[in-house]
Amino acid sequence: MKSLLACYRAVIKTKLAERMAYRTDFAISVLLMLLGDFMIPLVTLLVYRSGASFPGWTLQEALLIQAVFTLAKGVAFPFFFGIVSTTLYHVREGSFDIFLLKPRPILFLAMMNAFDLDDFGRLISGGVLFGLALSGVPAPSALHWIQFAVLFLCSLLVLFAFSLFLSGLLFKWVGSSRVYDMFDSMSMFGMYPGTIFSKLFQQLFTYVIPIAMIGFLPASALLGKGADGAWLSMGMSIIFSGAGLMFWHSMLRNYTSAGG
């Protein structure tokens, strides 16, 4: 464990030194990410200002869901979601074999290599939006904070599972960046109150592919709304992440160098 942490620490130092050598580019990247992450909350603000709303949800509550969603991505993208882009690049270039030769777990090496400081912009934007949204709702109790923390960890498990499924596909579906489009089109449902969707959609995104766990369910717990099925969805999140691990290792076994 100490050696793995030492490896990660060395990579972080190297990445930091690399980005500091190009400070302006780094600052612009973070700024553009901040602006991009605020677009959907801005649209939500405009919707409420126009007189429309999500039934049963105030503006601050709707923004809190989107803040939690952004915050979860702000943790996931720098630390492990980058395995998708790492796999995309190295399998396409035929250099993923290098990971197979090193005396460390392959998944850990892929995650470590994918660490990206630029993605901390999402963590900043999520934190700012979270603070703004939280200031407009009643103060959560200690129990609500505990429930939120548990469900937020599950949201990271769901994102980890997505990163495994998408990067696993790239061992065969070589060089296709369409996997990001797949993720964006599916995950966007986690940015809105689950109650605005049909019953079938609610069950699909809560119990089958637990997308609601990324934003909606943790925010509901923090607000004390107690969304139905939150704890069952937590179990499904664990199962989903386990299925992602199995899928990734299965696809890795079928990898035959330089593109499947």
Question: What's the topology here?
Answer:
Blueprint: H1 2-20, H2 23-37, H3 39-49, H4 59-81, H5 83-93, H6 97-101, H7 106-113, H8 120-134, H9 142-169, H10 178-187, H11 199-208, H12 216-223, H13 230-253
Helix pairs in contact: 2-8, 3-4, 4-8, 4-9, 4-12, 5-9, 9-12, 9-13
Descriptive overview:
The structure is a single chain. The protein has 13 helices and no strands. It has helices at residues 2-20, 23-37, 39-49, 59-81, 83-93, 97-101, 106-113, 120-134, 142-169, 178-187, 199-208, 216-223, 230-253. It is globular and about 55 Å long. The mean pLDDT is 83.
Task: Give descriptors for this structure.
single chain; globular
The dominant shape is globular
Distance between the termini: 31 Å
The major β-sheet equals:
none
Global structural class: mainly alpha
Discrete helix count: 13
Q: Please give the number of β-strands.
A: 0
- Which stretches of 5+ consecutive residues score pLDDT under 50? none
Summarize the structure.
The protein is mostly helical and 260 residues long.
